């Protein structure tokens, strides 16, 4: 049983070691090449080159969420259509009708997005 999992264990050890070495080298070289002390101005958060002027918890327009839902709808559609297309000869008419129902549900979601104006940017 150990022989089955040994390659995975070796991979995890090598990946962890490589990550630790790269992080350590980056930290060491970053300190060696930086001749200036770290000041608060350099470490402060900025947005596009200047200080943030609004609260980060501001409300977003609902269209951002609708676009995210639209992306998920089409992402799911593609993710389920590929295996279905490959297995279509084996699943026959029942699989075709099930996929038809699934696509109908997705089309209803798309129509909802369209009605809410998620595709229109002013």
Detailed description of the structure:
This protein has 122 residues and is mainly α. It folds into two domains: 1-35; 59-122, Methane Monooxygenase Hydroxylase, Chain G, domain 1 (Up-down Bundle), CATH 1.20.58. It is 75% helix and 0% strand. It contains three helices and no strands. The protein has helices spanning 2-33, 40-43, 62-116. The longest helix is centred in the last third of the chain and has 55 residues, at 62-116. 0% of the residues are buried. The mean pLDDT is 82.
Question: Can you tell me the CATH superfamily of the largest domain?
Answer: NADH:ubiquinone/plastoquinone oxidoreductase, chain 3
CATH architecture of the largest domain: Up-down Bundle
The name CATH uses for the topology of the largest domain is Methane Monooxygenase Hydroxylase, Chain G, domain 1
Shape: flat
Provide the residue-averaged pLDDT: 82
What series of H and E elements makes up the topology?
A: HHH
Total domains:
2
Q: Alpha-carbon distance between the termini?
A: 61 Å
The portion of residues assigned to helices is over 70%
Structural class label: mainly alpha
The major sheet is characterized as:
none
With helices defined by DSSP (H or I, 4 residues minimum), what is the helix count? Answer: 3
Rg on CA atoms, Å: 26 Å
Number of strands: 0
CATH class of the largest domain: Mainly Alpha
Beta-strand percentage?
A: under 5%
Extract low-pLDDT stretches: none
């Amino acid at each position: 049983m150990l022989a089955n999992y040994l390659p995975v264990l070796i991979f995890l050890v090598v990946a962890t070691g490589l990550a630790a070495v790269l992080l350590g080298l980056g930290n060491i070289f970053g300190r060696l090449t930086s001749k200036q002390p770290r000041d608060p101005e350099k470490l402060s958060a900025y947005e596009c080159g200047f200080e943030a002027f609004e609260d980060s918890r501001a409300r977003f327009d609902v269209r951002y969420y609708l676009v995210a839902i639209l992306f998920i709808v089409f992402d799911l559609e593609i993710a389920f259509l590929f295996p279905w297309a490959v297995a279509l000869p084996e699943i026959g008419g029942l699989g075709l009708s099930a996929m038809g129902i699934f696509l109908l549900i997705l089309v209803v979601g798309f129509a909802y997005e369209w009605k809410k104006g998620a595709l229109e940017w002013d």
